[in-house]
């Protein structure tokens, strides 16, 4: 048995009865809601936004309100996206340990070490995956970068919308931006960040499937239910590492 | 010549009757976005106005704004505005030359100090002591400082005088700037556009003569009546845009039917100007109506910010001019997707190797199973 444990590649592959999996409520409801209400609008926004950049469906004589409808959907999806983003932003400050902003900003050596371990794992320099109850340190930093990109996307989107809308309120909020950076360059930034979302989604889904397979802890399901199945020793380790801070 | 003569008298001597004069006033009131009741006020103010002196300075320019002004016959701008003001100095059209012409300019600055209107056309070079544009042995900067800081108001006519225009476009070898930057102490109103629309120039002058002040301006000191609205929102092809009917290439069916020029790089959605309503050539047409996309010529530093003129988005720095942002984005996304597939296969191989190692640890040791 000890031989097997030595060579096995994860506890999940050789279930250890001494540390029975515990059902942990990791992702609270606002985290899951904001996750899906960021993802779904991003799909809609990418499709409609790309159409607005390059209208690949060209109407004929009798086509109805094609571009008008697409723009309307883009705007509605954009505001849903902003609402979900603000909800997640709020939850950075009131959420549990795994969704708190401290889990994302690498201020401790422990987080940088964890990042190094994940980079080593992804680049095949390391055989085993470091287990985490919440986000691993590398994923957390990636999400932080994505939140910053989302924020830039929101700012540039609002700036473009304020030009169309000529709204006094919107202009008071975002009017400074087009004076700083020309509206055409804002458009370019808004367009290019869309591809960073594509790249992120590819990586995000892949690594979620990979880690879920490695840990066998219900990671994929957890974004629907909120629960993960974590060996009790890992849970204790997670709690002590946090208290050591 | 016409100095001292009343405005009405001057118009009548040129054969402009009362009816045409009122038509001109109506057009000006409409351009200024004022209610119709101001027509009477504008008409009486113009009739009573003592003809103010105007000097038109030309620096690094193509004379396009002068041409645009002179070629406008609607609404008798040439007749009305040329007679409204005492046009004392204008290199393109003045009869005088050499020392006499320069003396006329000097006399205006001396005798009409703080009262005359200066119009500036063209950019002002600052590099190498301003040697790239000199008139009568003086640099453009010296002339502009001397004239504009003594003027009641300075009108920057066209893109070059506003923000440096074409002359200032990257890499700007002569260090050209607009009048506002060159002479900060001057009271400037900017009329961007390449060229500026003479109807707007006339409207600014009419506003000044009627109300004694310059019209309300935006953050670039451009009059809001002309630069306050997006071209896209006033465009006659807007319905085709909303319906998704686009010209795909020059001369195709959509182009012949007058569909939207969005896919041809039209910058109408990014530009503010009253081009679609004021129009050109006696109000007959404007670029989009003639079948060509808007270049955004009234936008700030449009040669740099609105190019490439036939693409929707600017070029991505470092990728040359033949690759669009969309191609780069799709390329990088595809590369990441391919890399992910490779990584997934490699991870699966690693998994197999680890599992085999776990089941068959080493030939020397006894097998864990059985």
Describe this structure in words.
The complex is a heterodimer of chains A (245) and B (370). Chain A is mostly helical and 245 residues long. Chain A has one domain (26-243): Transmembrane di-heme cytochromes, Chain C (Fumarate Reductase Cytochrome B subunit). Chain A contains ten helices and two strands. In chain A, helix 5 runs antiparallel to helix 8 (183-215). The longest helix of chain A is centred in the last third of the chain and has 33 residues, at 183-215. Chain B is α/β, with parallel strands linked by helices. Chain B has two domains: 7-227, 3-Layer(aba) Sandwich (Rossmann fold); 231-305, Cytochrome-c3 Hydrogenase, Chain A, domain 2 (Irregular), CATH 4.10.480.10. Chain B is built from 18 helices and nine strands. Chain B has helices at 7-13, 18-31, 38-48, 64-70, 77-84, 98-111, 140-148, 159-163, 165-168, 179-182, 198-211, 224-227, 231-234, 238-243, 253-256, 275-278, 302-305, 325-359, and strands at residues 53-58, 86-90, 117-121, 124-125, 134-135, 138-139, 153-157, 176-177, 188-191. Chain B has a five-stranded parallel beta sheet, with helices on both faces. The chains are: A mainly alpha (245), B alpha/beta (370). At the A-B interface, helix 1, helix 3 and helix 8 of A face helix 14 and helix 18 of B.
List the helices and strands and how they pair.
The complex is a heterodimer of chains A (245) and B (370).
Chain A: H1 2-7, E1 21-25, H2 29-53, H3 66-94, H4 109-122, H5 137-165, H6 168-174, H7 176-180, H8 183-215, H9 219-225, E2 227-231, H10 232-243
Antiparallel strand pairs in A: 1-2
Chain B: H1 7-13, H2 18-31, H3 38-48, E1 53-58, H4 64-70, H5 77-84, E2 86-90, H6 98-111, E3 117-121, E4 124-125, E5 134-135, E6 138-139, H7 140-148, E7 153-157, H8 159-163, H9 165-168, E8 176-177, H10 179-182, E9 188-191, H11 198-211, H12 224-227, H13 231-234, H14 238-243, H15 253-256, H16 275-278, H17 302-305, H18 325-359
Parallel strand pairs in B: 1-2, 1-3, 3-7, 7-9
Antiparallel strand pairs in B: 4-8, 5-6
Helix pairs in contact in B: 2-3, 3-11
């Amino acid at each position: 048995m000890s031989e097997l444990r030595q060579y096995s590649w994860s506890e999940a592959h050789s279930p250890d009865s001494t540390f029975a999996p515990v059902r942990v409520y990791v992702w609270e409801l606002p985290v899951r809601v904001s996750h899906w209400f960021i993802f779904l609008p991003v799909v809609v926004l990418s499709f409609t936004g790309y159409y607005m950049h390059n209208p690949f469906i060209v109407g004929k004589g009798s086509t109805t309100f094609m571009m008008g409808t697409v723009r309307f959907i883009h705007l509605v999806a954009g505001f849903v996206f902003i609402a979900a983003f603000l909800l997640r932003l709020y939850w950075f400050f009131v959420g549990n340990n795994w969704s708190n902003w401290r889990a994302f900003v690498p201020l401790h050596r422990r987080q940088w070490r964890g990042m190094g371990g994940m980079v080593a794992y992804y680049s095949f320099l390391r055989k085993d995956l470091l287990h985490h109850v919440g986000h691993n340190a590398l994923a957390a930093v990636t999400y932080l970068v994505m939140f910053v990109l989302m924020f830039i996307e929101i700012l540039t989107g609002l700036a473009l919308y304020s030009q169309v809308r000529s709204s006094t309120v919107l202009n008071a909020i975002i009017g400074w931006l087009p004076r700083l950076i020309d509206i055409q360059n804002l458009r370019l930034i808004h367009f290019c960040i869309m591809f960073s979302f594509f790249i992120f989604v590819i990586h995000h889904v892949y690594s979620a499937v990979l880690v879920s397979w490695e840990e066998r802890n219900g990671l994929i399901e957890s974004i629907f239910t909120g629960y993960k199945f974590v060996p009790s020793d890992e849970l204790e380790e997670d709690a002590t590492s946090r208290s050591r801070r | 010549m016409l100095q001292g003569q009343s405005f009405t008298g001057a118009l009548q001597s040129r054969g402009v009757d009362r009816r045409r004069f009122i038509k001109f006033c109506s057009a000006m009131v409409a351009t200024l976005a004022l209610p119709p009741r101001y027509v009477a006020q504008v008409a009486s103010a113009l009739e009573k106005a003592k003809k103010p002196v105007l000097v038109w300075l030309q620096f690094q320019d193509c004379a396009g704004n002068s041409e645009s002004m002179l070629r406008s016959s609607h609404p008798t701008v040439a007749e009305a505005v040329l007679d409204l003001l005492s046009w004392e100095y204008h290199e393109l059209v003045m009869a005088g030359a050499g020392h006499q012409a320069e003396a006329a300019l000097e006399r205006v600055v001396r005798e009409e100090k703080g009262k005359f209107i200066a119009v500036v056309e063209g950019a002002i070079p600052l590099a190498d002591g301003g040697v790239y544009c000199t008139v009568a042995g003086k640099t453009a900067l010296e002339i502009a400082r001397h004239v504009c800081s003594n003027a009641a108001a300075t009108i920057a006519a066209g893109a070059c005088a506003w923000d440096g225009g074409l002359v200032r476009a990257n890499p700007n070898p002569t260090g050209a700037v607009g009048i506002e930057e060159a002479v900060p102490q001057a009271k400037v109103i900017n009329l961007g556009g390449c060229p500026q629309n003479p109807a707007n120039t006339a409207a600014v002058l009419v506003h000044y003569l009627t109300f004694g002040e310059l019209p309300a301006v935006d953050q670039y000191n451009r009059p809001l009546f002309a630069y306050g609205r997006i071209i896209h929102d006033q465009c006659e092809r807007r319905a085709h845009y909303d319906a998704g009917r686009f010209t795909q290439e020059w001369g195709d069916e959509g182009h012949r039917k007058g569909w939207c020029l969005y896919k041809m790089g039209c910058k109408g959605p990014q530009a503010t100007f009253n081009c679609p309503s004021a129009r050109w050539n006696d109000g007959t047409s404007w670029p989009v109506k003639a079948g060509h996309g808007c270049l955004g010529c009234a936008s700030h530093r449009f040669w740099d910010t609105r190019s490439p003129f036939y693409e929707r988005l600017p070029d991505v720095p470092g990728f040359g001019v033949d690759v669009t942002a969309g191609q780069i984005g799709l390329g990088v996304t595809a590369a990441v997707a391919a890399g992910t597939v490779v990584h997934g296969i490699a991870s699966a191989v690693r998994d197999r190797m680890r599992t085999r190692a776990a089941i068959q640890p080493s030939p020397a040791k006894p097998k864990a199973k059985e």
